[in-house]
Design a protein that fits this description.
This protein is an all-alpha fold and about 90 residues long. It has 5 helices and no strands. Helix 3 crosses helix 4.
Length: about 90
């Protein structure tokens, strides 16, 4: 089970949630923290977890691989750690 990213809820996002939903700031901070905690998996962690879940449900690999590709296309995953060099290569090629 993934742990929430405690004390890392961006204040501007919490204010936005409070403004758009009317929920109290403490509840909004907890919701944001919980959602962020849910999405801390890397792509590799997600694939390993989902593959195990789907196999446990009896889904054959032939159906698992396309499903995982589709799920990853729409699921935010944590970015891998990038070195300064890798960041420069993203910007400058």
């Amino acid at each position: 089970m993934l742990e929430p990213v405690a004390d890392e809820a961006p204040e501007d996002l919490v204010r936005h949630i409070v403004r758009t939903t009317g929920i109290p700031p403490a509840v909004a901070a907890r919701v944001v923290s919980d959602v962020m905690g849910y999405f801390v998996e890397t792509a590799e962690e997600y694939v390993l977890r989902r593959h195990g879940e789907l196999q446990a449900q009896g889904v054959p690999n032939a159906r698992i691989w396309p499903r995982l590709r589709d799920e990853l296309d729409v699921r935010p995953v944590a970015a891998p750690p990038l070195s300064e060099r890798q960041l420069r290569r993203i910007v400058y090629g």
